[in-house]
């Protein structure tokens, strides 16, 4: 099924419904669809196979996603926060490319050899173009998303029309939203959550209200001004929203549902949010770029029953990512490939129509039975609630013992003197790796390292106590709040000055850039 | 067997569907009692809606049969969906909370 059909369905069922609100701009489904037809005409006449987008999103996101679909091109939103070099490296990997760029980022692309249009030029051209409305092959690539590349060179994840429409039609009831429902979208356009939001809210029948640059106070104002009923945020945003509401209490009477995801959330934050907004249903959404967004959800009822629970097994579920969505199967496997049962920990494998597991340049990593290795370490309880304990690549091996950083982080974050924490392994001659806890102290607190170590020792085994505790003003993180562990480890390497470390990072990037690259080729074209 | 993703239209009403999960049974997919045809193909001008299959279908809903076939209504119409004379049933899905 092509994602074009999602827009066609929305259009045929209620053409006059407001589809998108972006600042002063408001488009009905019919207006959006007409602009999309023109946009597809612009793309088709350019001959582009790929359309990259560098900008902050808003109306441009649904416009470009659906224009590309109707023109049979693949859409590749890029991180507008990247440096000029970083952007050029990604752009060079996309053949037969048209770049659409918000005018404020136009200079980043100056001097390149690619065809570039500003967003305003694209919209003007769309208004005048001969409309095009193709139905592409459902197995063709609809969207290419680059992973953040926190551990290696960014990978180009290919999502087909079928992946995305399977996700949407499998998890969203068509036009099930009430006529007044509106979703506030503030996640980045180059993230799977941004792509997911643009297609699933349209299909659900919610007006999409865009906030292109997140600001917590403005977010609160927008919720009330646009009578927002649902919203999705990353944990960093949730933290700022909660802090804003704590310092200036404002009622959010229309907000029914607040989903969070994109990176690990600290439990004390979830509890504060639940207490602060008793009328709001919280949703923890877990998914990966490679799985076309959400594969498990912890529902509002799950949150409330866990928050008030006396039974420790139920209370623990506040830290769960919930249960798999329909159409997604999960397995936990041991290192030897055997399938594990409840309460056993191993790597999470997932399978389903929405799971791509396919990368440009390197191909599919699905196994013979269609299972995708997420590289996330996970376990599930007797009721099927899934717990993610970290990335396989982040596992610390200290004296032959495997230690998941999350195990220590979950204990440390509960200490009143700890605001943020990341636990990492640092090379050590004696142990192979030692455990280092990097702590951002709570405001006004000056934690004692030995007290923090003792706090961990009381909850976990001695071998899981941090060997060192160091303090930082903040942790390096990506736009969605993923902690950049590699940067932390780099900063902790012994006997090395910052200058040496910086020189090393630069040379790594250079050799990366010099690698021979095969441009992406589209299957079946 | 009919390919997943194939789109069909009714010959006697507005109904259009897309195949989500295929099965042999879909070779005899009908709307309003009359075989559906792939979108874009000619429809029989003299075909008429069977009054026994006239209670319609719902836009955006999935319909299934007992052999595992599944179609999604992409345009609703007055004809009931069936395989042969056996009506397809509406697939009830537990609504998920909005997560996007």
Keywords:
heterodimer; A: 525 residues; alpha/beta; Rossmann fold; Luciferase, domain 3; 3 domains; five-stranded antiparallel β-sheet; globular; disordered C terminus; B: 100 residues; mainly beta; six-stranded antiparallel β-sheet; four-stranded antiparallel β-sheet
3D structure, described in words:
- The complex is a heterodimer of chains A (525) and B (100).
- Chain A is built from 16 helices and 27 strands.
- Residues 496-525 of chain A have low confidence and may be disordered.
- Helix content of chain A is 33%, strand content 26%.
- By secondary structure, chain B is mostly beta strands.
- Chain B has one domain (7-90).
- Chain B has no helices and ten strands.
- A six-stranded antiparallel beta sheet of chain B has the order 5-1-2-7-6-10, with no helix packed on it.
- Chain B starts with 6 loop residues before the first strand and ends in a 10-residue tail after the last strand.
- The A-B interface holds A 1, 5, 8-9, 12-13, 138, 162, 169, 171-176, 183, 193, 196-197, 200-201, 204, 206, 230, 232, 257, 259, 261, 281, 283, 285, 293-294, 297, 299-300, 325-326 and B 4-5, 7, 18, 20, 59-62, 72, 74-75, 93-100.
What's the topology here?
The complex is a heterodimer of chains A (525) and B (100).
Chain A (H helix, E strand, L loop, with lengths): L2 H11 L4 E5 L2 E4 H18 L3 E5 L5 H12 L2 E5 L5 H8 L5 E5 L13 E4 H10 L12 E6 L9 E5 H11 L10 E4 L6 H13 L2 E4 L5 H10 L4 E4 L1 H13 L9 E5 L5 H10 L4 E8 L4 E6 L1 H8 L4 H4 L7 E2 L4 E5 L5 E2 L5 E6 L6 E2 L3 E2 L7 E9 L5 E6 L4 E3 L2 E3 L1 H8 L5 E11 L3 E10 L7 H11 L8 E4 L13 H8 L5 H17 L11
Parallel strand pairs in A: 1-10, 3-4, 3-5, 5-6, 9-10, 9-11, 11-12, 12-13, 26-27
Antiparallel strand pairs in A: 1-2, 7-8, 13-14, 14-15, 16-17, 16-18, 18-21, 19-20, 21-22, 23-24, 25-26
Chain B lengths: L6 E3 L6 E6 L7 E3 L2 E2 L1 E2 L23 E3 L5 E6 L5 E3 L2 E2 L1 E2 L10
Antiparallel strand pairs in B: 1-2, 1-5, 2-7, 3-4, 3-8, 6-7, 6-10, 8-9
């Amino acid at each position: 099924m092509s994602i074009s059909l999602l827009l066609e369905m929305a259009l045929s069922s209620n053409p006059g419904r407001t589809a998108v609100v972006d600042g002063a701009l408001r488009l009905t489904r019919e207006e959006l669809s007409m602009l999309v037809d023109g946009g597809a005409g612009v793309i088709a006449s350019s001959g582009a196979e790929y359309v990259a987008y560098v900008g902050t999103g808003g109306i441009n996101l649904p416009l470009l996603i659906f224009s590309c679909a109707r023109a049979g091109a693949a859409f590749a939103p890029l991180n507008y926060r990247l440096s000029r070099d970083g952007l050029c490296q990604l752009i060079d990997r996309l053949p037969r490319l048209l770049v659409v760029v918000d005018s404020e980022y136009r200079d980043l692309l100056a001097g390149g050899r690619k065809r570039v249009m500003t967003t305003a030029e694209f919209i003007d051209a769309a208004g005048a173009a001969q409309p095009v409305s193709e139905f592409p092959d459902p197995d063709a690539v609809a969207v290419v998303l680059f992973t953040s590349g926190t551990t290696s060179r960014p990978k180009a994840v290919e999502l087909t029309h079928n992946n995305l429409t399977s996700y949407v039609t499998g998890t969203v009831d068509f036009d099930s939203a009430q006529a007044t429902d509106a979703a506030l979208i503030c996640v980045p356009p180059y993230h799977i959550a941004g792509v997911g939001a643009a297609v699933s809210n349209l299909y659900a029948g919610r007006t999409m209200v865009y906030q292109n640059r997140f600001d917590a106070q403005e977010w609160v104002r927008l919720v009330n001004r646009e009578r927002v009923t649902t919203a999705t945020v990353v944990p960093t945003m949730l933290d700022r929203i909660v802090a804003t509401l704590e310092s200036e209490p404002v009622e959010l009477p229309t907000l029914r549902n607040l989903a969070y995801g994109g990176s690990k959330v600290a439990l004390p934050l979830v509890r504060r949010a639940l207490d602060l907004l008793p009328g709001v249903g919280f949703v923890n959404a877990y998914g990966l770029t490679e799985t076309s967004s959400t594969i498990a959800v912890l529902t509002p009822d799950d949150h409330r029953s866990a928050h008030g629970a006396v039974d420790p097994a139920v209370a623990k579920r506040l830290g769960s990512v919930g249960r798999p969505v329909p159409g997604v199967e999960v397995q936990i496997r041991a290192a030897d490939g055997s399938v594990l049962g409840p309460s056993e920990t191993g790597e999470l494998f997932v399978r389903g129509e929405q799971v791509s597991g396919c990368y440009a340049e390197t191909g599919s990593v699905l196994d013979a039975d269609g299972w995708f290795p997420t590289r996330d370490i996970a376990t599930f309880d007797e009721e099927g609630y899934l717990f993610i304990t970290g990335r396989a690549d982040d596992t610390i091996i200290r004296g032959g013992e495997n230690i998941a950083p999350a195990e220590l982080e979950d204990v440390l974050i509960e200490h009143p003197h700890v605001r943020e924490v990341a636990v990492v392994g640092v090379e050590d001659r004696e142990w192979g790796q030692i455990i280092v806890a990097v702590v951002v102290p709570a405001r006004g607190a000056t934690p004692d390292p030995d007290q923090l170590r003792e706090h961990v020792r009381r909850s976990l085994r001695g071998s899981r106590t941090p060997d060192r505790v160091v303090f930082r003003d903040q942790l390096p993180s990506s736009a969605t709040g993923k902690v950049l562990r590699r940067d932390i480890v780099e900063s902790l390497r012994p006997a090395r000055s910052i200058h040496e470390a910086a020189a090393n990072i630069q040379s790594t990037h250079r050799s990366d850039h010099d690698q021979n690259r095969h441009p992406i080729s589209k299957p079946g074209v | 067997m009919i390919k997943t993703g194939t789109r069909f239209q009714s010959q006697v009403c507005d109904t259009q569907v897309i195949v989500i999960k295929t099965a042999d049974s879909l070779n005899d997919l009908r709307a309003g009692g009359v075989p559906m045809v792939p979108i874009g193909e000619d429809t029989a001008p003299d075909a008429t809606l069977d009054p026994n299959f006239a209670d319609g279908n719902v836009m955006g809903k999935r319909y299934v049969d007992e052999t595992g076939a599944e179609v999604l209504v992409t345009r609703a119409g007055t004809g009931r969906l069936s395989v042969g004379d056996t009506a397809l049933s509406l697939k009830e899905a537990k609504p998920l909370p909005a997560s996007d």
